[in-house]
Design goal:
Helices cover 34% and strands 25% of the residues. The chain is built from 13 helices and 19 strands. The strands form 5 sheets. It has an 8-stranded mixed β-sheet, sandwiched between helices. The structure holds cytidine-5'-triphosphate (CTP).
Amino acid sequence: MPTVVLGVTGCIGAYKACEVLRELQKRDVDVHVVMTRHATEFVSPMTFEALSRHAVFVDQFRLGENGDIRHISLADAAELLLVAPATANVLAKFARGIADDALSTLHLATRAPLLLAPAMNVNMFEHPAVAENLAILRARGATVIEPGSGYLACGWLGKGRLAEVPDIVEAAMAALQRRRDLAGLQVVVSAGPTIEDLDPVRFISNRSSGKMGYRVAEAARDRGAAVTLVSGPTALADPPGLRTVRVRSAAEMEQAVLRESAGADVVVMAAAVADWRPANRSDHKVKKEVAARSIELERTTDILAALGREKGPRFLVGFAAETDDVVGYARGKLVAKNADLIVANDVSGAGVGFDADDNAATLVDSAGEVVVERTSKRALAERIWDRVRELRGARG
Ligand code: CTP
């Protein structure tokens, strides 16, 4: 029976958490409730205590029934931390690592995945501070169940209403399903751009930020895989809990990916590898008076195609950034490179693709297509791994 810690914070939607609790119990989930002081203004801890049949945790300085330190013992037992409703205040505390009550302390102490169902007034939800805090939490791997739109308790019309109970329950069950479902797998993910030097000060590169590949690597890590991330130059920090190999050029990336992929079960080529590099690299800065008017280029190795030629039992995932006939080109790449799955994204839209935090994609494989509407890069990463699991399962 999986254990879910349900965090309840001070908001009118707190009463709906009772229903979330009941629905999870019906699905054989053991639910422990942690409330903030403000939440107890809306619903009595007694209600949750009676429903959950566990003591409700409100006061971080009171020991548990067996003299245990509850924010640690509960944090260890949790397989999912679900906060519904999540106020702007708790999002800010989580984003900044503040630990001044039972729930925020438990949040720092647990390694369980985090699922957040925000609820607040529309102006609060749209405030840049809240948006930034949600972006920070998403980037760290939290899943956010979007609030609904409509009449809010405060009388305003807009986005901010706690998501519907069935949606929260479904998201919680999906998160439980995913925990450690990639355990035992060796995964290699490439990410970021490559840099092709012309001379010591000039280079050719592309707009990849690396965010998508990093999210793919982090999602695999959180689902139990042993992950090696081969990263081109990015502004992103090495993610904890996985091995990061830094490279610069397409040639270095080729070497590193082929070496790391030797024993891998799944290789995801999310990197935007340069297709061409300067045929001649100067060791000295080239002066403009003597510089040629055109740069001669030569092809780099197509790493994904090279992996496809020596495929073995490995499962290969490629990316395709396109601006038109997205699925058509992706299908061509699937066949040409002997990949098992191509994540095709349309980079012509605003707010998705390069350097954005969101993405939208079509997952193209030989059996069909799965459309993933605009969502966070982390959520897309989860969908990619869901599909990899399905397709590997079908292949036996
Ligand atoms: N790729 C690779 N090695 C390269 C170039 C690309 O492994 N030298 C991989 C990328 O990581 C990605 C996929 O191939 O998974 C992208 O396919 P590609 O045909 O190279 O896309 P584009 O560079 O966009 O090519 P085109 O301009 O032909 O669409």
